[in-house]
Amino acid sequence: MLRLLKPNMKGMSMQIASKDISAVSMVKAALEKAEKYQDYHVFVSLNSENALKKAAEIDAKIARGEKVGRLAGVPYALKDNFLSPEGKTTASSKILEPLESPITATAVKKLEAEGAIMIGRTNMDSFAHGSSTENSYFGPTSNSKDKARVAGGSSGGSAVAVALDIVPFATGTDTGGSIRQPASFNGVYGFKPTYGTISRYGVVAMASSTDCVGFFTQNPEDMDLLMQICAGQDSYDMTTLPDFYTTTQSRQDSPRIGIIKDFDNDAVHPEIRRALTEKVDELKKAGYEIVELSMPALKYALAVYYIVVPAEVSSNLSRHDGIRYGYRSAEAETLSEVYGKSRSDGFMPENKRRIMIGNFVLSSGFYDAYYLKAQKARTLIIQEYAKAFEKCDFILTPVSPNPAFKLGEKVNDPVSMYMEDVMSVPINLAGLPSLTIPVGKTPEGLDLGLQIIGPRRSDAAIIALAMQAGDALRGPAAPARILRDGVDGDTKRQDPREEEVK
Ligand code: GLN
Questions:
Q1: Is position 229 within any domain?
Q2: Is the CB of 310 under 6 A from ligand 1?
């Protein structure tokens, strides 16, 4: 028997609006799952009381026959670097642990205006510095398929919240891969929009020239809905673009897909190479034209990123001085001790490493050799993508060189951790949109993802391609939406939403 038991979010909110199911029971189910999966350490804090209160308000509105939003009653998880007065925004750091925000991030405002309900704040690498969520002050998050492995990062908690089906979507930020890499490690969709598509207002800054707000979802349709809701110009963020998302021609007739032939293949795990080759073959069979690209400047991207980003990090983190926000050391007696001790206790080792590198590359005597040179190489990378997009419409590449690695394996070796970002950071340097799609699994059951990259403002087209290329791109790891007798054909997990929906 085939039953469609796991609707997308549009379907969920329609079921709520038509009183098939109440917002309260939907939120309760999400909170119960959050408790059930506690040992994965997905959340830094839960928002149970507020969430249930808001759900009851939505149910009451529906009972009175009032109009509700496009996400009415849909529970979601918020990465812990989005400011809102609900709970504390810690960015998974000690220095912000006491912070109660008086303001709400624009993206959060837009989601809440449509009736979405935040059930908790997700764990992340402190200040989003990292690729595994092991740099969190509160301890690491586990991978959704193997508890001994990393969730990826920095938005590890958000990716696992969606992968374990605690919530249908979660927010993330992507400065150099923090949405796409954990999405790929956990078999979900993760989208980093064109730089400036969604307002960064109210998001704890990492590197202002590459930070992007985006999402994790279980399917591309939900991603499209979230983009329609959240994209747009914001007077509080002068880098936002006028809304292009809904007006862009989204579907392309016979898109040409580029693959990069001069990536260092030996550095890429054989299972990821296999997945890429298989998908390219399937795309060819489905009639897509495949174009081989040579992109030699991409080999500079990692070095450029780890100069430009720490430079911006050192500037953005200078505001955390123990005076204005959050934690202040109780042992400090003089002003300079307040600064020194608060920052010394409050930041994690990786935060400090970036502050040191950033100040070094910006200091007189080194600025020309490092920062200026990196900016020139960044321009080369931007130009190289522009040339590539004259030959193809999208580029398909791995997201990271390896599937989820073991907890503890790389955290004490920063350079090997940075190497994990080699395929995700060039996209941020060029401000391009890119979507992680789950494409399969390793023999041990670890998730594999690939990313579709497009030119600036091709966001809707990328998401349309993910829907359109359907089976040729989507692997068995994508959470199945059609269930046989209530059992997910791929993972053999009982659909956790089944009880409420039937
Ligand atoms: N892993 C990358 C870094 O540590 C990217 C982080 C991010 O996108 N926030 O810089």
A1: yes
A2: no
**Structural domain boundaries, residue 422:** 2-300+373-487
Spatial distance between the Cα atoms of 356 and 311, rounded to a whole number of angstroms: 9
The total of structural domains in the chain comes to 1
User: Per DSSP, which regions of 207-247 are E strands?
Assistant: 213-217
Minimum CA distance residue for ligand 1 atom 4: 130
Tell me the pLDDT tens digit for each residue of 224-282.
999 999 999 999 999 999 999 976 556 667 799 999 998 777 789 999 999 999 999 99
Q: Is residue 8 part of a domain?
A: yes
Q: Is 176 in the pocket of ligand 1 (CB under 6 A)?
A: yes
Q: What are the b/e assignments for 437-472, b being 16+ CB within 10 Å?
A: bbbbbbeeebbbbbbbbbbbbbbbbbbbbbbbbeeb
* Cβ atoms within 10 Å of 43's Cβ, excluding its own: 26
Residue 402 counted as domain residue:
yes
Give a yes or no: residue 398 inside a domain: yes
CB-facing half-sphere around the CA of 115: CA atoms within 13 A: 28
Residue 153 near residue 181, CB atoms below 8 Å = yes
Model pLDDT for residues 105-148, shown as the tens digit of each residue: 999 999 999 999 999 999 999 999 999 999 999 999 999 999 99
